[in-house]
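User: I'm writing a tutorial on reading structure tokens. Could you give me a worked example: one chain, its sequence, then its tokens, then a sentence or two explaining what the tokens reveal?
Assistant: Sure. Here is the example chain.
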Amino acid sequence: MEVLFTLAAVLAFASAVVHATYGRAQYLVPVLHSQIEIQSRSVLQFTFYSLFVFMLLSGLVFIACACEVVATMHSYGLVLFIAMNYGLLGIWQLFLWRTNQSTHNYIGQYYWVICFAIAGMSCGALFV
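And here are its predicted structure tokens:
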């Protein structure tokens, strides 16, 4: 069993849980109750839940790779794609944290570290 894939899966599942609980309460619910168009609310809700599904599926892929259910040849491109997505999400979260001067969002301040850790561990598991 590959340890780095297992750690990446645990972090992916943990980020999905935080996204579904904290993110929903802090970001999605206020937007859904705001005075924007119904179509814009639907698009934001779809984007929120599609990111949640991506996090769950990436955790399942990491578990499958850790248990060596998927051959290395087949998992190489898939894991690199997932790592790229988490890396881009980490860059975006870092940008949002640096441009937002709010001090009450403690989870958002360190979410980019989790994204970079998932990307780094998944790439490290491929190349080690």
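What the tokens reveal: The helical segments are 3-32, 38-66, 72-99, 106-127. The chain has one domain: 3-127.
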